[in-house]
Amino acid sequence: MKWQAIFFDFDGVILDSVDVKTKAFAKMFSSYGPEIEKKVVEYHMINGGVSRFEKFKYYYKHLIHKPITEKILKDLGNNFKKLALEGVLAAPFIEGTLESLEKLKKYGIPAFVATGAPDEEIKDIVKKRNLTSYFLEIHGSPRKKREIVNDIANRHGYDLTKCLFIGDAMTDYEEAQACGTQFFGIVKSLDKSPFPESTSISVKCRLMSLA
Q1: Beta-strand pair 182-187/163-167
Q2: Contact 40, 29 (CB under 8 A)
Q3: Is 38 in contact with 141 (CB distance < 8 Å)?
Q4: Which among 19, 60, 135, 150 would be 20 to 30 A from 167, CA to CA?
């Protein structure tokens, strides 16, 4: 099958940068004690594809039980960016990523980024990692991934049943299900796949033949 389009999450799919952001979340909430820090990390790992701002709201409401304002959200976002950006820019590629992107480019299959990272930030990261030429469009939060994917499909006339979404978290799988795309799950070596085998392709740190 020749895909009409392929949608990529970013952290854990393009770059091996999930651990960088995990450490950033842990550091930001370490002052609340080891139990809260542990719960912060667990929630982040379970909800890998969710915007950091949605995670901050959850942490404040359900873990530290404090009100959160737009100013607090903005400050948290800036702090997180400072802690994580350097690590993301230095993170290695997921094995097979560049080869797969080159193949998609060669065969003229359009690729898009749809991620939970802030829109302006992800565009800057893609540019600094010299990846811009591989993607037709690059989009991040505050829009949810399903909004991004549906918008792109509507504008370009794609049949989403003939498109592929590549992610590394169950939230990515759920977004793909909501959009009606096929799904390709990235699973790190030695980790157990969280994805239903009947509806996804689980791989060990490698993007197989996509074209």
Answers
A1: parallel
A2: yes
A3: no
A4: 60
Residue 79's H or E segment, with its range, is helix 70-90
Distance CA 192, CA 135 (A): 30
What is the pTM assigned to this prediction?
Answer: 0.81
Instruction: Retrieve residue 205's tokens.
Output: 């740190």
Question: For residues 120 and 139, what is the distance between their CA atoms, to the nearest angstrom?
Answer: 8
By DSSP bridging, strand 111-118 and strand 5-8 are parallel
3-state secondary structure 164-191: EEEECCHHHHHHHHHHCCEEEEEECCCC
Segment 124-135, tens digit of pLDDT:
999 999 999 999
Contact (Cβ atoms closer than 8 angstroms) between residue 141 and residue 116: yes
CA-to-CA distance for 34 and 53, rounded, in angstroms? 22
CA distances from 188 to 16, 78, 89, 156, 197 (A): 9, 29, 20, 32, 16
**In whole angstroms, how far apart are CA 153 and each of 7, 147, 185?**
11, 10, 21
One-letter amino acid at 179 equals C
CATH architecture group of domain 5-16+93-204: 3-Layer(aba) Sandwich (3.40)
